[in-house]
Design a protein that fits this description.
Four copies of one chain form a homotetramer. With about 350 residues, the first copy, chain A, is of the alpha/beta class. Chain A is about 40% helix and about 15% strand. In chain A, strand 5 (about 120), helix 5 (about 125-140) and strand 6 form a beta-alpha-beta unit. The interface between C and D is medium-sized, with 35 and 24 residues.
């Protein structure tokens, strides 16, 4: 199976909303919810992609060649590369019923595991989703990050404990899902949460707690204060609030605020190992990749996921060779040029 | 009735010039007068829309959730949100004869009233238009702002008195209508007016006088000196002079000049509650929305207007939730990022 | 006859190269020589148009209304507006044989005269062209500016004397025509000229000498030193050298260098009275308009020219009303906002 | 034969990947490898072209006209213009089998020689390619620059000696070919090389050693330290690493670092003599032109190459006339305006 075959098959199975575009840039699907698009004008998604394209790699091949290592140590574990599958939920609604949230999670968890990566998995209105995913994570020795929505503190605590019991190496919360009005309509309201509530949650589990959906230095400081061990800089792919900045352009200020004090992951528009390289150069510790795994799963299940991670790893390694970086620690600000939007 | 149905019906009734575009951005109708377009190249309209799209919202959902209030106090009254219908005139000419200025005003006045907002209404060459509108405002207890064109001082004074007698909570003048050469051609010349004349007008009525069509800090200072209680930062939707700046990009300098000393409203390209949020963040006290009400009326009459206000209010409230603003006072400069054109 | 009819007729008569586009911006005809296009990539022409579009007008209608005057005093004469027809040559080649250089010159000279403006006329490889044009200028009392190509000094002196004998109120030279290789191929070489040669020419006639094709402050200083009473800031519509800056973006530096010491005219992409207003606001004393007169002549002869000047004058007057400028002297830098390319 | 005929014929013979576009800007072929495109998104190629278009020429024709000379002295030789054919390899794969690497090299070597220029020639997986090219260079008195890939030092030394024996006036290495994974797949790995290894190579031959693929000031300093007499600022036409800067935008920093201490050539997106002029104005000593020679050869063999060089020379000379540069030394920073991307 090749990635080209995966894409071709995905076009047949992924449903009416996603077009499996040659450039997955948020244009064809803008405003398509249900579907994979950004909300409203779609600018949250589109800007993620476009802003990444402004960052350029500093090529220099005059140096003593060594074997490149993409290995990353994060949250007490070693990964083959600092790239993870982002949580994706309600796939039956946004894509097609060829998969449901459980079978989708299973495919990304196993594919990522095999490739030396790991998957973040999603949460849903129905309890079976989270439960089933937790079991899948348990079955592979805890190599996955269950990501809980900002329900009531009580419910979050219960789910965090389930994650801990399953041996998950970390547990996440997408705090920006507070903007998903559709959840309240289904009788399961979500809401913003203060530092105190987050601290209670972080303190209730023994493994690292990761807050996803941070877009400001102040937000990052609050996450740190709450005891989070990591954050994901993210605008939720443009799906919870229209017209936000791209995640990459707010990264530098966040790195300045909390860099070195917690792990900083990022998602939004990342497609290639070169994109991953850019985020690392700007100070991120790792990257979550979202939509590319949707067509990977719909077109190739676990194998599609594995091939996608492999491709990204090869691209990252190549970028390191061409810029003279032997390890991730060598990928610093000097390796890219970038003028942020503002 | 849904807004989608309103739009579909509007396409059938609104006439040949307006295309009810998915993005109402001034491109399809550029130069179309009669019609809804901007004058000449249409850049006055187009820039309004484009410049608003450059402003980005600062997302942060780590805070103690509270009930959001979009309530605004302006001109001695409380509104459910700081959004008003902009005056639109000669609808029979620019759109279709499914409506005339009286039936149009009636629809926006009543729809806005019901939604907790209020409408600015227009003026015309024929006296019946203003007279009829005044009666409609009187019938709903004065919840509307008659907007007088810059005719002779004598005529303006007479009309302002009519507005006062009808109990209108404010009276406006679109001073930039001085550029409407078409009025002179119909025997009713308009012209620029000095501070002194405006002061006479402002001093002749007991309710607030609002000057619409301010595009510079100096113009705002003159309006203040004339005794106006409010201004509308506006390039008249690009219809009185081609190639002006957008209204949003001149807002910050105007806020610096007169902010806190008078109420600052703005119009030009505002479509969603997110757009409203941006103006408030840059220092405006309220927003006038124009063209969206034209298809609201042609497609849904009073109900279409009501639904449009409701949609904008919901979007504004959602933006407040996602940025951590409980009241309008919390929407400050830190809630957006923006680099003005120049 | 209306300008719309003029345009419609021009489409039938103007030949295969010019498309009489709704926006005459140099795109459809890029690289079309023969034809009206800019050389090579066409960027010289295209940039002229685009850069003008970046300049925005400062609207303010709060002031005591007075009668606007567009009257300009230049080169010892009073014109109804500071706008002139630019010299256009070889019209039979670049447009169609419905006109030749003599009949074309006659139409612009007479149309401009009637509208209170004046035309610059061109020069050609064949002596009859210049001779005939001179006679036409003489016939209307010298209200035209013969523009000589940079041939040998001897030939230029002879032609300048012919212009003087005809009573022309000024005489010009398009020094940038040194780039027209096509002339050398026809046995009439042109070349750059030093200050000394230009001083000889300027000193040989009693009326003002105008150098056209200045694009730098240094070039303007040299023109001043040569005794020129005026310059035309111009990249020759992008037709002598590809990839130059636009004329408008180099204007401010030139104004700073020689403003007040000589008359500064400009051409390149000017279409409307608003465009004229922009150049005046940036310090120009007058504007030459080129291509719009080609479709004016081909579609309406002298009458088309007259209507075109009238339209530009009305637009200029309207811009003055909307910005509070009573005379040309009031159109200063505060009346526009502009960020030049660099 | 005209260049227009060359282009027409090339369209028939050049194969399926190259479209011989009117503007050879890297868009139609983006990602096309095999083919002439840039890798991945194609941005490396596309940016080269676009960034050059941002540089504008400073026109001034007021000066004493002299005969322009485009003559350049480089690497101990005098060339009619400072423009060379860039090395292109595997033409049978990327274009069509109407040519192979030997016949292609022969055409560019001879065409360039005749036009007073010289060609850089490529290297390949099979030894016959390099060997054959060397013989072709020997046959024309050494007027060519064999360009060796970064194989093992031993192999490079052997090939450099072959170049020296053939009398080549210089020998090059495209150090950035370290990114061509396809070579390793064919059993001939390439890799980055440290300064020491490059110094060994440079020291092993008597003629100048030129390092191609420098994109940073630091890389240029290392090349200088290694004893290279020249560098080619190049991103390999976007074919070894995606998303690099354009070569022209990194040129100024490189000139500042090593200008005057070694010869600085550049390639990437150069199409016309005006493009060459821009690089010289920014401090380059010469320019390599790549893709235009591919359609020159496929459409006109040696004669197509000759005509292409002649065209570029005429354009360069014309730009010099229009900006007042008599020799290449006169083409300095004042002759262009440019704001680099970052």
């Amino acid at each position: 199976m090749t990635l080209q075959e995966v894409r071709e098959k995905a076009k047949l199975t992924i449903g009416p909303h996603c077009k499996v575009c040659p450039e997955c840039d948020g244009r064809a699907c803008r405003g398509a919810i249900p579907g994979p698009g950004g909300k409203g004008t779609g600018l949250g998604f589109i800007r993620n992609y476009q802003e990444l394209k402004k960052i350029r790699l500093t090529m220099d091949t005059i140096y003593q060649s060594v074997q490149v290592s993409t290995e990353a140590r994060l949250f007490g574990r070693t990964f083959r590369l600092p790239v993870f599958a982002a949580p994706v939920g309600a796939v039956g609604l946004h894509y097609s019923d060829a998969y449901d949230d459980l079978s989708y999670s299973s495919a990304v968890l196993n594919g990522c595991l095999r490739a030396g990566s790991a998957a973040f998995t999603g949460d849903g209105v129905k309890d079976e989703v989270f439960k089933g995913t937790i079991e899948a994570i348990k079955a592979i020795g805890g190599v996955g990050v269950p990501t809980i929505k900002p329900w009531s503190v009580k419910e979050v605590l219960a789910k965090a404990r389930m994650a801990q019991d399953a041996g998950a190496f970390a547990v996440g919360m997408d705090i920006d899902a507070a903007g998903l009005a559709v959840l309240a309509m289904q009788g399961k309201p979500v809401s913003p949460m203060p530092v105190e509530a987050l601290a209670t949650i972080a303190g209730s589990v023994s493994m690292p707690f990761i807050l996803k959906g941070i877009m400001t230095a102040e937000g990052a400081r609050k996450a740190l204060k709450a005891g989070a061990k990591g954050i994901v800089v993210s605008n939720h792919g443009g799906r919870v609030l229209d017209e936000t900045p791209s995640s990459i352009e707010v990264l530098p200020a966040i790195v300045e605020a909390v860099g070195g004090k917690m792990s900083i992951l990022i998602d939004g528009g990342f497609r290639t190992g070169l994109d991953v390289f850019k985020a690392l150069a700007l100070g991120a510790d790792g990257v979550l990749v979202g939509r590319p795994f949707t067509y990977a799963v719909y077109g190739g299940d676990e194998e599609g996921v594995f091939l996608t991670v492999e491709k990204i790893r090869a691209e990252l390694a190549e970028a390191m060779v061409m810029t003279g970086a032997a390890t991730l620690a060598d990928i610093d600000r000097s390796k890219v040029s970038y003028q942020a939007e503002g």
